[in-house]
Amino acid sequence: MLSKEFRNKSPQERAEEVATLAKLDAEDLARLKTFGGLDESTANRMIENVVGAYPLPLGIADHFKVNGKERLVPMVVEEPSVVAAASHAAKLCLPKGFTASTTQPIMIGQIQLVHVPDFRKAQAAVKKHKGELLETANEKDPVMVSRGGGAVDLESRVIKTSRGDMLILHLLVNVQDAMGANAVNTMCEAISPKIEQITGAKARLRILSNLAVHRTAKAHATWTKEALAESTKGAFNGEAIVEAMLDAYAFAANDAYRACTANKGIFNGMDAVVLATGNDWRAMEAGGHVYAMKTGQYTTLTRYWKTKDGDLTGEIELPMAVGVVGGATRTHPMAKTNLKILGVSSAKELGEILASVGLAQNFAAMRALATTGIQQGHMKLHAANIAVQAGATGDDIDRIAAIMAKEKNVNVKRAKELLDG
Ligand code: MEV
Q: Which of 269, 326, 382, 391 has the fewest Cβ atoms surrounding its Cβ within 10 A?
């Protein structure tokens, strides 16, 4: 965990503390201190038409204990309060912290077959040749196979469309510690010619599905009514907070408008870690939102209930397509440093932490919304941003922000008055 003084240190001093705790080497520390570490040639190789880099703040969420292990959680995000909210929620469920798990890292690759002459025969042919098709797929990634992964199954189903029925194949691939998109896409393309040959159909799309239903992560935690009461400095009693939060949960569970915002809050936290570790946050969001529809009604990704002791337990479950090898996790220097700060060496560990962060973020938003409202917590940082917009620099930022927050009058005009006065 971070020291009590961490908040009041300068960014450079904070970087040093994190480097000590995470046992970072001098190069990692230098990267933190230079606010980016993405050199021109690396950036130029990552995407096309590169003209520069776009820095975002990297903050460290504290107090996370996942499956008994303390973690410093790097978060890259532009929104104030996200890091503080996650840290606070994590602190409130100590000493136990979060219990989290993941399923096998099985991703789905889809192959779309059109102009299928005979669906029954095509499905039978795919089944008959499955062994050899999986072998062809696996020849494309011997490293993954040598580490115990690779293509493990091939399923088929018929879908009805306005352009006629289609046969959709799902190639299931154990991608181990990778996110897996490249490997899965390559495998799907590799087996398609043979599939066309044995089915007489035409293969159109061959692409990963981001609805990673076989690769999910779960986390749960319990917040005692005493900790909840303490979190409001006694302004609310614990039982009342539990009831209010259960009402908030029931709202999100039964109303898509609310569920959408609750899930947005979950991704505030998860995306920040996904981004910090060089993973694909769009993939994470796409999979999560569709997973939230799995009962047919769009709902929240979390669930809450009251324990027999009257405490509040929360749980989250969602697809978890993240990796610690391949892609930007290995090419972006900051992503590598952030993985060291997290102390993870497997996609499983990363997924467990991510699910915990998602739950923490949702809990924090719900607690604030069900008690004092969300604006109070936002006020200080929001006021500081407004002070900067009004032209404040250095110590003036905090001075003006504190006055505006106290006055509950946060706007650029007032900030300018205070700056000039
Ligand atoms: C704001 O970025 C996120 C929240 O709206 C999430 C929520 O309402 O649960 C506070």
A: 391
